[in-house]
Amino acid sequence: MLRDAQKVCGIGRFRLPSPLAGYSFTASNGRGSDDACGYAPSVIRERRPTILEVSPNMSNPFQIVVCGSIVPDPLQTLEPVTGPAGPSLKNEMMLPAVLDPWAGHALYEAAHLAGKTPGSKVWLVSLGPKAKLQQVMMTVAQKVPFELVALDGPASGFTDSFETAAALAAAIEGIAGLDKSRLLLFGGWASASRGAGSTLQMVGERLGITEQFQGVDQLTVGEDGGLEILERVEGGKQQVSVCAGPPAVLGWATGNLPEPRNNPQVGMANMRAIMPALQRAKATPVPGAGLSYVSVSLPKQQRETRVVKNAPAEEIAREIAAWMGEE
Fold first, then answer.
1. Residues 6+ apart with CB under 8 A from 53
2. 68 burial class (0-12, 13-18, 19+ CB within 10 angstroms)?
3. Which domains does the chain have, with CATH numbers?
4. More confidently predicted of 86 and 145
């Protein structure tokens, strides 16, 4: 069994017949690299018992597609207006844009998973005005490695989620070499510009993916390739769901990862593919036929302040609890 070992320092790698064909093996003689360097390719002279370390073979990489668009910077003043073409934001084309924060969490989680699973790949499918997409990608490209699939179309929060889902699904179907049996569709649980949380679900349905999880905070891949998913439920609680494996749709909440630091090397590598992808971006109108809005307005802010001096902490806590119980 120890014949045909490669001549390497410290370790020897070799093949074994079934039923262990699905595993990779590392052999070590328990000594330093000086003895190992003298081994011949056909004979191994061992002075101590050989140790075999068996680990699962990572032969099932993931293909992760992240759906994420751009939204106006939330630090700006957003004022809705109604025009001949329907509602929009005042001076919308002049407002600075950022990657949707919900989609950003999904992208970082996708890159983290791909980094732990050799052979995996991440695509970012984004619908938005080409010029604004280019501005946002200059920043996002420095965070994590991915391949951009760009669609030149509206990114307003007033676009129809049904039409948006159809455009995104068609773009995903057109990705060359995509294997749906290994597909994980990531995206935001909701959106900073549209809180319906329906777009990602409809994209999954159009792709024939019925295993869908929303409000995801954590994803764990088991040794058998199964997925253990921690997702949010009502009442501030979470539930653990188990899926046999891809394909699956995961709508991310905030996750557990911080925003990655800017990496100029990653940015330059990404931009080599992002700029041609933007040039190839197809015009994608989202008509929204039959969609109408009765009224559009900002949420009303209501604030009631009462100044009380020398109130004990217990009384304040009881009053807050009673107020929360009335909601």
1. 25, 26, 28
2. buried
3. 1-57 (no CATH), 63-283 (3.40.50.620)
4. 145
